[in-house]
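Re: the 508-residue chain
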Amino acid sequence: MSMRRPLALLLFALLMGPVTGSLIVADDNGHSSWSAVDSDGLQWIQSGQTFDVPAQTSPGWVDDDTPWWERTSLDLDRNEIHDSIESRIGVTGTALVYQTDVTDAHLAALEGLGLNVVDVLEAVNGVLLGQVNTTLAPTLAALEDVVMVEEYGNVIFYGDVQTPAVKASNSSFYPMGAWDLGVSGAGVNIAMVDTGVDNEHPGLSDKFVAGYDAVCYTPSDPICIAAGGGVRETDGTFDPDDGNQHGTACMGMAAATGIDASGAQTEFYGSAPDATLVDVRIGTDAGAGPFENYVLEQEFYESAMNGIQWIIDNKDTAWQDADGTNYGIDILSLSWGITSHEGGGSDGNDMHSQILNEAMEAGIIVSVAAGNDGPSNDGLSGMGSSDLSLTVGATDDRNTVDREDDTIADYSSRGPRRDNGDGNPLNELKPEITAPGTNIVQAEGCVTSGLCNNFLGGDASDNGYTGRGSGTSYATPAVSGILALMIEANPELSPAELKEIIKLTAER
């Protein structure tokens, strides 16, 4: 049996806490052995025995191949138009999903209607159209190969003891941490999709591998040019700055080394201090983009979708100046969500949830925040409702490493997500994992000293770790760091395997 796979399983039974149960582990030749983890700790048993598993009748949903657009709860009248659009008068951000790849003929048909194509999202056969009058929705739905007319969602950011509490580092409560097993995230690239990261911060220096600015992804955008933006390199060489603080804080929780401006070592580590950064900026100093104007919410949605498409396209890119062992993108960390217009939240069939499924299937594990709507929310938002992604809720650790006093944070969205109509009640159970997200110390971005904004690069090299923040925003990067440790332990694990291992070995 390969040693990497047992190490990964052992590591995350340790990190997230033991759970009673059994699982089958396959070796490199496809042979299986039965292993168990007991409630008192870790006990691996290789019996070499044969187990008889009783035949079971498959539930009806297993063989259900109904396409999503024929069962989604976002279009209850089955006219291929989001119900929220039909209840709206005037213009709204509009997107189309096609049954096939988007072709020149499809784009020509849109131009023939006088519409401007903002972006094409190959991963989901999608087209972003910007503001379109809702009266055009039936015409758009009737176009060849269109299976859904969607409304843009609204992008919202969900914004010490965290690292030992998840057992990445050791502590007096948990003497054995993941780092003691020889993993620290080395060679693993985390795509932090946020407001940008000030990687000049002493705890984040030397982490930058690649970057992309989805805020000004249209090189000719006149406002970006006037603001000092203009053309942005799309090959990964552009290094975005953080005009908000949110992105720098999140990357610190995933991968900060704990070094401060004096060069001294602090305890403010991220879960994976040797993981590296792919910095994808989709937000600005107002928390929305690209023009620091909440009125232009559609532009924020377009930036978010464009940034995720860029990540999928560059999953295996050999970055400039990166050595042969460090390339591409391994983890997509999302500390924000997209609200749905329908009551009851998203069912995971909207474009922004499905593009995360595509990232998972491309080989990128997605860690996404559940949201901060608390127990009274009427369903999870888009992104957190993605079928395949790992959706993260937050705990309140009471500022102690000991887990015995932990509770689900008051603000953390509970779920479940809205029923997607596939007949399977189990895949509505989200979020799937929690991590500390309350009162977490942050790595300071340049903006805290007032020396920079979105288009005026600043220097965070003199900054430290002072402010505290709470939210599923901050629980999510802790999980992203844990995933980096898992990938270093066994690079052969698929996103689906990573997700299942972290769920199976989490403390109940």
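The first strand starts at residue 21 and ends at 26.
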